Amino acid sequence: MSTADTTEAPEQPPAKKKFTFPSALTVLAVVTIAIWLLAFLIPSGEYDRNSDGAPVEGTYQRVDSGQSFVDRLNDLFLAPVNGLYGIQDPKTALVSPDNSGDLYGSAGVFLFVLAIGAFITVVFATGALDRGIGRLAHRLRERGALLIAGVMAVFSVLGTVEGFAEETLGFYGLIVPLMLALGYDRMTAVGAIILGAGVGVLCSTVNPFATGVASSAADISLGDGIALRFAMWIVLTAVTIAYVIRYAKRVRRDPEHSISGFLPGDRDLDETATETAEVPELTRLHKGVLVATALVFAFMIFSVVPWASALTGDADASPYGFELDWSFPQLAALFLVAAVLVGIVARMGEQKLSSTIIQGAADFVSPALVILLARGVTVIMNNSKITDTVLHAIEGVVKGTSSGVFAIIVFLVNLPLAFLIPSTSGHATLAMPILAPLADFAGVSRAVVVTAWQAASGWMNLWVPTTAVTIGGVALAKVGYDRYLRFVWPLLAILFILICAFVALGAAFT
């Protein structure tokens, strides 16, 4: 046996594990324990409440929470349960699943998220939405700028009404080759997809996972503030589309301006590739599903908008006779019924429709669990009577500021929170019980706080590496994350300024 055969190979150093940011569920579990421990250190206190339950400025006072260590330990143990269906006693204000009183937990929002998950999954199972976007791209294949605008506008509409984000990952296989064939680069496709859907989510009008959850946590209607959010959506979407088109035209005129560069074979494609690409036609069935989906979301918007207040500008206006004033229980029922109707229109059959609805609800359990965990944190704060103490501390920071400055501060405060908790639902449920009452002190509509919060969450999610939409998108398009940041930072700066202007104006006019 040779020496070479008996010599042991040198040990290789163990590969370093790549750090991965914990999930929203893990973050909220850590936050729950941290808040529970802090409750032992933060003094208990409370405000006097008016007839609407809002804190009265200047009435804060220290009180004894009256909780023993065992009581606090029980609150920690039951936090997720209380976050789902905890009941608040009207006399003591304590929350427990065994109380009699008003529902404090997020059972309504929890079921709403599962219902809309079932509906969205049924719609995607029909193939109508995918094929509809594919047909749009194919029809506009010879008009590059119009194609970019059309795709981004559709994604933005879906983003603002139903939080269309992760669903965009399935469109890179279609959009990237199409953009290359038209003389653009991969970054153009990334911008059209991520920024198109992202700006819609940033300016959510009735997005149930952002505006809906935040409005519920702020104890206002989903339709409150929709005029401001709609104006933001129009302006910011137009600016974002113009930004991507401007970049795309520069690349088409001179490929040297491409930030992403070109991979081998990218420049071999030409416009003939788009002619030979086969995109199936929309069948009558697909058209029916698309029409039904549009009608469902249109009816949702109609059902939640306080039309008398919106049309007269008077927040206390008597509602019109046709107003439905629907909330999450009715909306949950709406989307469950709509899921069944879409399945019937698509001729799915009983077994496939049932399994698709169940699968859709299962796929959305994660964001639903995030909501109840975050609500469980607020229960701990409520029962230990530290919520008003934290509110009083923040009140001292914003006291004396103008309404516009207050709205901008709310936007800025939520930026780091959005990084730590990329789940919009969890972020909203956690932050709103503290931020919404501040609006009462500042003389600002709580709807402005909701708008400022969701703008912060949406702005961060356009670029932070903790979101699967951004990291997954650049990976699918084979574009470096550093290059994406170089591409997007000027737009981020523009959107930052516009957001501050909109929330400040919205606060001033309320």
Detailed description of the structure:
65% of the residues lie in helices and 2% in strands. The protein is mainly alpha-helical. A hairpin with a 6-residue loop joins strand 3 and strand 4. Helix 4 crosses helix 17, helix 6 packs across helix 13 and helix 8 packs across helix 9. The N terminus is likely disordered. It comes from Streptomyces endophyticus. Keywords: Cell membrane, Membrane, Transmembrane, Transmembrane helix.
Note the gap between the termini.
89 Å
**Helix coverage percent of residues?**
55-70%
> How much β-strand is present in the residues?
under 5%
Please tally the β strands and state the result: 5
| Number of H/I helices | 23
Mean pLDDT: 85
Spell the H/E element sequence. Answer: HHEEHHEEEHHHHHHHHHHHHHHHHHHH
Strand order of the largest sheet: 4-3-5
Residue stretches low in confidence (pLDDT < 50, at least 5 long) are 1-7
Global morphology = globular
The Cα radius of gyration reads 25 Å
Q: How many strands, which pairing sense, and closed or not: the largest β-sheet? A: 3 strands, antiparallel
Helix-strand category: mainly alpha
What key attributes describe this structure?
mainly alpha, three-stranded antiparallel sheet, 23 helices, 65% helix, 2% strand, globular, C4_dicarb_anaerob_car-like, transmembrane helix, DASS-Related_Transporters, membrane, transmembrane
